[in-house]
Structures
1.
Amino acid sequence: MKNTTNYLILNQACADIVFTFAELTSFIVRTNSLGSQWFGGLLGLVTCKLFLEILVIPPVFSNWILVAIAVERFCAVTRPLISSPVSQHLKKTILVLWVWAIVSSTNVLVKGEVVKTKHYYYCDFSSEWINSHLILAAVNIALPLFVVAALYTIVCHKLWSREVPGEGPNQNEGQAEAINTARKVTRMMITIVVLYVMCWFPFDVLFALNVGGFVEISPNLHIFLIWLTISYSGINPYIYLTFSQKFRNHFRHIFRNFFRRIKIHNFLHYRSQSVDLEQL
């Protein structure tokens, strides 16, 4: 399981977890009985900026991690005997993607502010943030999806038009198995990308139209869009379990060991209590 694609998936899962908890916290703050309130002072300003930053960084990272996975799959299919640049520099690739997600979200730190009204403080963006956000949204949303679509189009064409080479039944069987495995992994990752577009694209488009003043998002629609983006993180594991036998096997192995340790712990605890009672 310790291959390049799975390490990239692991990092995307970490980003999804951070975003899910941050978005749920934001949702609770915005829908509580007191309204979307914050607190003033320097501490309020710092925490507001950091909170808004946490809401932006994980989605940006997830977009580009999909690109990294697509590049890895592209190289694995088009150049199977040569390690991809992502595999050769995996740690550096992951570090660069995290750094880029943070750097490209610095406008949130600059434009995030605590707005004071007559009775309350609100954590929100300044109006000057809108234009820079739209530009970065095009760079961090539209561009990654375009690159991913182009790479997977080439990968699909290569995989499904490729004939199994070689001589002899054993060699053909090994080549066929390798191609089938590559097809399964490619199907899985394309499903993940399609799922990502279905869950995130409505939010991105409607939010951009709302910022531009073309549409107005009702509270119920806003709740639905937030739920849709969070559901992507929840559905992802089921996609991996559905497409990958290795994921299913290791998932069973982890839980089997977990419950076995619980039983052993309970048994030892029971035995220790029995010994203590016998001594008494």
2.
Amino acid sequence: MSKIVHVVTVKFKPEVSDEIRQEALRDVCDLKNDIPQIISASAGKNFTDRSKGYEYAWVIELKTKEDLSIYLDHSAHLEFIRKYKPLFADVLAIDYEA
């Protein structure tokens, strides 16, 4: 059975505190509580020197491409974006079928 994997990597603006960065990771994982289409959610801080400056990443797994659309348009996800996107210096998102 295939699934959809949504991967996001971010660079926070330098002035964003570590506390806020950790809050963002908790909040993105907590989206699973509000969006039933999410199979799993994980997030963490990079620990290698291969990330080209991207410091944090999260992975959201869903069942179908339609579920990805529902996730992206869900009010809980849109609220997360509204709250945290202004704090990002850069974002890279990739979606693939596994």
3.
Amino acid sequence: MVTRGQHARLGCFFSFESNSKGAVTWHKAELEGNMSSSQVVPLRRRFSLAHPKTFLSEGDASLVISNVTGEDAGIYFCKVRMWEKAEEQGPGTSLVVYAHPSHPEIYLKVATRSREVLALSCQTSGYYPPGITVIWDINDGDFPDPGPLEIWKSEHGDYQATRHLVLPSTFRTNLLTVSCIVQHISLAAPLYTNYSHNLSEFELTQYQLVEYLNIFKIAMILGLTVGIFLTVLKRCKIK
């Protein structure tokens, strides 16, 4: 198991005779695939032997992968062929690549239904594998059931998760303090973000917003009425 961006070293050891000649190749199969459908790993760029010039004399043909990516995950095995001897194949090593989730972020959403007091969303992204836990923790009151965990896979192969929290109008507390906690297999300790909001101020803001919208509607109606009246009056003068 390695984390994306780290280096991985996969062992391949064999016995040899002095002055012997031979060669080594590395092969890769999918983690849940068939070993017979493996492909040769080109030894260039991020893939190299630990001892490219002395692997025969040292009996060590270990493979080093630098700056590991999610696409590098798979089963790797080496094949060693010594002069005048049959080719030998290693048992294979599973390389599992993890990616840490980003620090969770909490967003305030606009309430979409009249019975909602507040709607929050917690989001984390960039992690692998897809299994993840996102939990809401609240300071006071009857905790409402959070929404389902929504997971998307990005074009890069990693994942993003979002979980909503909707507080109904029956929820009663003045100062709301919540935490969003993220747990993933790649983390040594959970990640969390805190959020606080004064619900009384939020309700006042909602009321003021509705009041301003009503004033705007009245002004629009008056403007249209005056415009129609002036148009009719202008036409009457022309006649």
4.
Amino acid sequence: MSKVARNALCPCGSGKKYKHCCGNNVVSIHGLVDQDVVQHMHEFIHYAAFEHERFLQRAADARIHKEQTDEETLPVFRFFIGIWVMFFKRYENGMTIFDYYLRTVRKHAVRPTVYHIIQSWRQAFPTFVRIDELHDSHATVTDLLTGETKHMKLLDMSDGFELKEGQALAGIFVPHGQYVTSFATFFPLPRPLTEQLHAYIQDVWETCDKQYEQWIHMYPDTLQNVLHFSIFDFDAANLSSKQERVFTLFQENFPSQAPSVIDTARFIWVEYCQTCHPVIRKPEVYAAALHYIMADAILNENVSKTQLAAQYGISTSALSKRLDAFYDVFEDIAEKVNERLAELFDDWDEDDWEDDIFEVCEDCDEDE
């Protein structure tokens, strides 16, 4: 950028002389623009929450499958689907909440550069990206939907938000000059899930016939499914029909249906099958053994072998015999579970991202 004369109009568009505006401030013009853009993101969310509350809530609730969503993921999903509604859900007159917000922006003094960026939000697009190169204030990312390489500006990042190369991010992405950026914030996913996520996104993209409008419509369901991704990337295709029957029986009888518990049980069962290659004559015996392992060794709950055997319609001696064989290899399987969990939570510290996701929502509760 060429040097600006001190008495010339400031290129930021304020109407002031450069010496009385950006030329008298250590903050760069780009920094001022970034600050204004972030402020407008917060103001847009505030505007949507208060001026379009009923429409926003009804449209978001209509896309949430509450029976499939646990208490931990529901607030996260509700936030991101709310952003989706703000950009893509239309009133009967064809207007979106963003269309209405843009009308209010025109009535206020806004830097021309900032206003141009806000207008470009019409090109908002929900997607998932993978971080390829990470720098202080920006990153090079690959769109897992289209395969395009993009330069992403990291706006409004807190000091505790640690990202890593190879990690995937979900969100609504908008243009930001020569960059793209996530609107308000993004949802970071652990690196162990990136490959699984990429395959899943491509399957959905094919289902949409690679049509953007269909993809945008499918995004709420896609995001909700992604939030329930298994933390273990086991290959279930290698299980035989009887081995699958074992896990079905276990799942039908086990009291806890929490996704983390079921995922752990399935990982243990797949690892056992791949290690021991059991020849299964009576699936109920193996299902009862898996049930006991999960209750006793994983959840530290007391369970009666006699009662468990009766529940599965087998003898106590058959259960005890199968448990002896299970425990012979369980130590190695448990070690693999711990390694997998350590890898996961090394990349995904819940405390790091939770505050960032809801910080902008808390701003919406403040009085204007």
